[in-house]
Amino acid sequence: MARVPLAILAIGVLLAAACGGEASPADGVPPQAPASIAQLIGPWQPRPFGLEPAMRSRVEQACRRDMWLGPATVAALVDVRGGGVTVVRMVGQGAGKCDALEIEAGGGITGAGGGWSSNGEQLAPIEATKLAEAEFGSVGGGNLRVRGWSVIGRAGPGITSVEIEPVDGPAVLATLENGWFAGWWPSNLPPDGLGGPAPQPDVVVRGFDAAGTLLDEVRP
Known about the structure:
By secondary structure, the protein is mostly beta strands. The chain has three helices and 13 strands; from the N terminus they run αααβββββββββββββ. The chain has helices at 10-18, 37-41, 53-66, and strands at residues 73-80, 85-92, 95-103, 109-111, 115-118, 131-139, 148-155, 161-166, 172-173, 175-177, 180-186, 203-208, 214-218. The strands form three sheets. Strands 1, 2, 3, 4 and 5 form a five-stranded antiparallel β-sheet that branches. A four-stranded antiparallel β-sheet has the order 6-7-11-10. Strands 9-8-12-13 form a four-stranded antiparallel β-sheet. It is globular, with a radius of gyration of 16 Å. The two termini are 24 Å apart. Residues 7-31 have low confidence and may be disordered.
């Protein structure tokens, strides 16, 4: 049964953002304009913003620097949707993830949350209609005024939109770039009774084709 995730125009907007703001006439919607600094540091929204190339380059450089990655490691995916937060997945000669970098009012990018890095990774082939390797990240730290969760994973080439739906929160339209998807949302989950990190939320991730047909569904 076909289902249109979030909104009829969501897929077209997502594709425009993933292509740096350029969309073909077949997309059926105008390209999404790159976000202003005011939008990037403003209120969180469930759909991702576009990002202008110079800002994307600064984000990539900041994540590379924070995770001690080499120059041949590049950003496969950058997710921005307000709150001064950007979530980044790095690939190439090395691999890594920045769970949360902070976008400052002056346009600078600084470290905030955690992440990881490695000298490289071997990714298994992924079926065209499947989601894979979805993992949580914790959003917060540094001077960020928000806390929350993110999910990053892989999507096969037949998937044209990804929706992340926390059981107790609003659905999030993921950024989808280069076979990767990501999205984050604010959360005020308290720490557990032992003072450790908050328990991970119950989340469903769904992948759709261009017609809005559900192709795959996973729980991280």
